[in-house]
Amino acid sequence: MAKKAFVAIAVLALIIVLAVVVGGTLLNMSADNNTPGGQDTVPHEGKYGIYVLDLSTEKLELLYSADNEMYTSALRLNNQGEKLVFAQKMDETDESTEIFTIDIDGQNLERITDNSYWDLYPAWSPDGMRIAFLSKRDSDLDLYMMNSDGSDPHLFYDSGSHDADIDWAGDTIVFTSGHKIWSIKDDGTELTQITNPANAGQWGQANLPIGDYDPRLRPDGAKIVFEKLEDTSTTHGGYNIFTVNSDGTHETRLTNTNYSQGIASWSHSGDSLVYFVSAINNEGKYDMYMMEADGSNNHNVTPEYFAPDFLCYSPIFSMDDSEIYFVGQWYE
Fold first, then answer.
1. Which pLDDT belongs to residue 17?
2. Could you give the CA distance from residue 181 to residue 155 in angstroms, rounded to a whole number?
3. With 80 as the cut, is the pLDDT of residue 290 above it?
4. Half-sphere exposure of residue 101, counting CA atoms within 13 Å on the CB side?
5. Residues near 243 by Cβ (< 8 Å), separated by ≥ 6?
6. In this structure, are residues 117 and 137 in contact, taking their beta carbons and an 8 Å threshold?
7. Helices marked H in 103-218 — which ranges?
8. pLDDT value of position 168
């Protein structure tokens, strides 16, 4: 009898231990939720922010936040992997925007322009010592250059009309003008037209005319990714993503979805692309997508726990391609 009692007590003790272990695990799972990184809310301070998302764990960190409007079409990481550059309004009643840099840990925010102009769409030089940017100091946007601390701002190129959408790799700068992609050497020589879209400049219902926009050079400078506005019958516009060799040959379609999508950026390996989709048909999305450089394995990488009123813009890869930096906006 004593032996049976001992066994019964031992079994009961084991059941209690298992219950505690399993119960604790369930409590932890409930507390962490079912996301890979154990996160179920987006950090929220101001209306806009710079965030970093771990692609494997879906862990999200807020690096910088502000209520003033951030320019959502250009967030850039320097090639040294140390600093981000972006543009932001100083006051909601002021149309001018200024350019800032910040360390990737959210420290050392520096305002590097201080004027009454539109200064926006900054892009680092490969050595991180200079920044190309757009500025409206006359009747339209032109390409400007300055040192990375904001000193020596000067006109770099003016086509005589609206210039936009800068990127810089190696000794080459790419941009848009006349709804086409162009390149120019960083010493101001060898201006070259890269694309020639059919019906460029033709307006419809979209907020831009038919054309090619937002070119981004692969890190080795050999290819350019860009979006082409093909369907202007809707307010959002139907865009598709393409690549082209830097000499203008072998233009290749990567998507055929006609989403409102674009501002694609290369991984540092050159194997992948990340971009955002702002609308599908007439439904707003503002999700982040990734695909291989040939257009395969195209998929949404936006975590399910992101709130519907949290909008994602301009994703870019970290230096090791394991994380994505992006601009977030809380829609009100």
1. 33
2. 20
3. yes
4. 19
5. 223, 224, 225, 226, 251, 252, 254, 293
6. yes
7. none
8. 98
At 210, the amino acid letter reads: I
Q: Are 114 and 98 in contact (CB under 8 A)?
A: yes
DSSP symbol at 217: E
| Tens-digit pLDDT profile for residues 26-42 | 233 333 344 555 678 99
Give the Cα separation of 303 and 300 in Å (integer): 9
Per the DSSP assignment, residues forming a β-bridge with 192 are 183
Span 119-144, average pLDDT:
96
What is each CA distance from 146 to 81, 82, 152, in whole angstroms?
Answer: 20, 19, 5
DSSP code at position 75: -
267-275 own/partner pairs: CB under 8 Å, 24+ apart = 267/317, 267/321, 268/219, 268/317, 268/319, 268/320, 268/321, 269/321, 270/218, 270/219, 270/220, 270/223, 272/317, 272/321, 273/225, 273/241, 274/301, 274/315, 274/316, 274/317, 274/324, 275/227, 275/241, 275/315
| Distance in angstroms between the alpha carbons of the first and the last residue of the chain | 72
Write the pLDDT tens digit of every residue in 210-245: 999 999 999 999 999 999 999 999 999 999 999 999
Which tokens go with 70? 């951030």
Give the amino acid at 307: A
Amino acid identity of residue 163, one-letter, is D
**What pLDDT was estimated at residue 23?**
39
CA of 156: how far to CAs of 74, 175, 186, 290, in Å? Answer: 19, 12, 9, 33
Give the model's pLDDT for residue 4: 37
